[in-house]
Amino acid sequence: MKLNNINVVHFQDNLFFYPNIIMSTTEKKYNEAESWVVEAETFRDSVGTMDNTGKRKWVFPRKPKGKYTNYRVLVSVLLLAIYFIIPFLKFHGNPLLLFNIIERQFFIFGQPFYPQDFIILALGAIVTLIFIIIFTVVFGRIFCGWICPQTIFLEMIFRKIEYAIEGDRNKQMRLDNQAWDTEKIWKRSLKWSIFILISVIITHIMFMYIVGYEEVFSIMKEGPFAKPTNFLVMILFTAAFYFVFAWFREQVCTMVCPYGRLQGVLIDKETINVFYDYKRGENRSKWKKGEDRRAEGKGDCIDCKQCVVVCPTGIDIRDGLQMECVNCTACIDACDEVMVKVGLPPGLIRYASEKEIEEQENFKFSGKMKLYSVLLLALIAFLGGLLYNRGDMEAKFLKPPGSTFFVRDGKITNTYSYTFLNKSNDNRTVIIKIIEPKNGEISSSTSNKIVLKRDAMIKGTINVSFPESQIKLSKQNLKFGVYDMNGELLDEYETYFEGPFKFQF
Question: What is the DSSP letter of 22?
């Protein structure tokens, strides 16, 4: 924090809580005993992609390579394959995943969900939020660097196309600064054209999750003039994707995404993040072959800045935890490569907690992490239980508005409208029975055996009669049961049975 023109930053303080007060890398003095840095210059008071005037600083990261990068590529390929394949998969004839908000049709793992299941979806959303909070407390922003669609699309698709066409960091910077000659025009035109094409593909796949791939192909076949509204929506979303991945890029993480801000109140000293081991690295100094750096009072950081030039968000990880950091591990690979070349042990930048850095401990799965991991598994099990035990059928029996009872042949009769929703993937034949009170009779214009098609809703009307002597109250509790042909109770519903008012003495 800056007080009386003196800049003092304690490494044990969580810098993320002060996103606009990040250490400068200039003129630092290090105190090994007390673990703090005194700075004579200035603090960075803006995000890493903005200069002092507020103008955008374009980030040209060097192409990462290394162990963690290879792991991230494998994870990304798997997730991208899932994203592009799932819309075409079906389970029991239903889409594997479908979120048709327009027609209120939802399928999760092939199981249909309806507005009647809103409570389950709401509880699922709450459980998911709790899961994110607990996961972040333990594992930091691993999600951002490894799983987040923004990171995967940008780093594993768009950025790789950019490397293939324009080259690595230095070539991109040179191309950006040169005049609009033939080389720059055709390279930029080719890149932007491919970006637009990929944005179109991503948009169409996204809409397949909403309306299904059959409907998307139908819209494409009919053309823009048959369904201009759908075509316009496609254009708008394509433009949005292109804008994000071609220009806005890493600024999504710092200016739009709420998760990065949420992290500031969730992490603590035991949270795992990408950290620079300042106790080992300081005092940083340029590499000199053959020198004894410890004897000279120098740390292992040779100030090569490879961790900086490889960062896709344009920050210096050595300045501590910052809101721009997405834990992508590019700086880890870059630093480890340099450490190996100069004969120093890798891990100067690594996955660790702030506590481990301060106390110079090796990583260990602490009791807190074990407890939170158990809670995460319990939340997953709870959510799975909700989805599995939601019931295969829902039945409702309601009296039509304005209807009343009638008495005939010594019996009191009420009319009920029923609605059956078959949530299963199988056709069913059901029978309506009266559970309470006894001696009730059911009559219908159709057969008492009702055929329910899979994933379908059916409505009808029945008459329920009781002996006049049995009805003692003007409103009597009534319980219906819906059974399958094997006698298994599928669902039950409680309502009331109307009768004439009687004085009770």
Answer: B
* Rounded CA separation 103/455 (Å): 14
pLDDT (tens digit, 9 = 90+) per residue, 330-340?
Answer: 999 999 999 99
d(CA 89, CA 327): 32
Amino acid at 502: K
Q: Which of 441, 438, 418 is nearest to 491 (CA)?
A: 418
CATH 2.60.40.10 residue ranges for the chain: 393-498
- Count the Cβ atoms, other than its own, within 10 Å of residue 133: 12
Please give the full DSSP string across 450-477, using - where no structure is assigned: EEE-TT-EEEEEEEEEEEGGG--SSEEE
pLDDT recorded at residue 498: 87
**What are the DSSP calls for 81-126, one per residue?**
HHHHHGGG-EETTEESEEEETTTTEEEETTEEE-GGGHHHHHHHHH
Nearby residues of 257 by Cβ (< 8 Å), 6 or more positions away: 150
The token duo for 189 is 């035109």
Give the Cβ contact number of residue 253 at 10 Å: 24
Look-up: residue for tokens 């969580």?
A: 14
69-78, 300-309, 314-323: lowest mean pLDDT where?
314-323
The DSSP code sequence of 422-449 is E-SSS-EEEEEEEEESSS-EEE-SS-SE
Q: Which two tokens stand for residue 447?
A: 């057969």
Architecture of domain 393-498: Sandwich (2.60)
**Model confidence band, residue 10 (pLDDT cutoffs 50, 70, 90):** very low
Radius of gyration of the chain (CA): 32
Contact between 401 and 421 under an 8 Å Cβ cutoff? The reply is: no
Could you read off the pLDDT of 462-503 as tens digits, one per residue? 999 998 888 878 888 899 999 988 888 888 899 989 888 765
Decide: residue 307, CB within 10 A, 0-12 exposed, 13-18 middle, 19+ buried: buried
Higher-pLDDT residue of 46 and 50 is 50
Return phi, psi of residue 468, to 5°: -60, -35
User: pLDDT of 156-203, one tens digit each?
Assistant: 999 999 999 999 999 999 999 999 999 999 999 999 999 999 999 999
Q: What percent of the chain has pLDDT over 90?
A: 36
Rounded to whole angstroms, how far apart are CA atoms 110 and 97?
7
